[in-house]
Amino acid sequence: MSNFFLSSLILLSTVIGVGVFALPFVLVKSGLAWYIFWSIFWLLTLSLFYLIYLELLLKSGGRVNFPGILANFIKPIFRFVGWLLDIITYGVTLLLYLLVVSEFIPELIPMNPLLAKIIFSLISFVFVVFNLKIFSRLEAFLGILIIFLTLYFAYFGFTQGTFLSISFDNKPLAAYGPLFFALSGISAVPVMYDLLKDKKKFFITTSLTYFIIVIIYFLFALGIVYLTSGNVDEMSLVTLKKYLKPQVFNLSIVLLLINIFTTFIEMLYYLKRGLQNEFNFSSSLSNIFILFFIIFLSFLPKFHFLSLIEFLGNFSLSLETLFLSYIYLKLPREKVAIPKIVIIFLSVFILIGFIHGIIK
């Protein structure tokens, strides 16, 4: 398997996940024109900003995380700002996953949604405590299955739907945050570069892979909107239950839950490493913190699926990207590969989305 194909597969499996199921509803709210605009915008922006992130990683002389980059290029105190932002981002993402767990595990095994979240959290915690990485080796394979599942839903929608007049809301910023979240995959950057060993190859691979993902997302969103005549839930898998055979629906849930489980564990590993490396927590103290954190999240009231996604895209991820933009613009001109005017232009759009998210 070539390094190009393997690195592309890593980005695909990192990016495609639960966020894709919000896109049909988002397409109805934004309309075709704005959905396509933001898809192209994020394709270009993420390809460039992941190159910026890679540049900053390399200039830091090793594998640092986002808080480490803030500390190295702004001020050491910003390490804590970065970790606060990371904890918010990861906490809301974990909360989003627990919401999906509470929605769909009872579809497979009759149980109280709260109990489903607690059991899921405790099993994930056990994997982290004992450093079990059974599913990590299957992550790329699971990613491929999710891709095929998404394409199957698109095919099913186009072949089973009947054309009716679909009313789009045409809200300009409706797709901004959800598409940002659904396309984010920054954790794949260091792994991809380790394989490619070249920034030009990295940029080409990232751009082509994001082009494929954007096409897959658009086909899926349009297919489901066509199938449902625009009457789709913000978590489209809920709507699909009415159209799919029980066996197909249950298989879809199983694949989605396994995908969430692997990502959930990886995020807990990230938090644990951060507590140990940045704050000198012992392994035991880190485990206790993580346990209380995920149990706390499990007992929080139910939030709207799309609201959590919009918060992540409009606020957390946008703020992280603006920090990267600020750092990059501070670098000497002779040490940058991307024209600063391009980054300023893209950052203006991100700032607009960020401010809109705060106001909303």
Task: Write a structural description.
By secondary structure, the chain is mainly alpha-helical. It is built from 15 helices and no strands. Helix 6 packs antiparallel against helix 13. The radius of gyration is 20 Å and the shape is globular. The N and C termini lie far apart (46 Å).
Mean pLDDT, to the nearest integer, reads 90
Instruction: Describe the main β-sheet briefly.
Output: none
Helix percent reads: over 70%
What's the alpha carbon Rg, rounded to whole Å?
A: 20 Å
**What are the low-pLDDT stretches, counting only 5+ consecutive residues below 50?**
none
Order of helices and strands: HHHHHHHHHHHHHHH
How many H/I helical runs? 15
Q: Classify the beta-strand content into a percent band.
A: under 5%
Give the overall silhouette. globular
| Strands, total number | 0
Helix/strand-derived category reads mainly alpha
Distance between the termini: 46 Å
Topology:
Blueprint: H1 3-15, H2 23-30, H3 32-59, H4 66-73, H5 78-108, H6 113-129, H7 139-160, H8 176-183, H9 189-196, H10 199-228, H11 236-240, H12 246-279, H13 283-298, H14 305-330, H15 340-359
Helix pairs in contact: 1-7, 1-9, 1-10, 2-3, 2-10, 3-8, 3-10, 3-14, 4-5, 5-6, 5-12, 5-13, 5-14, 6-12, 6-13, 7-10, 7-12, 8-14, 12-13, 14-15
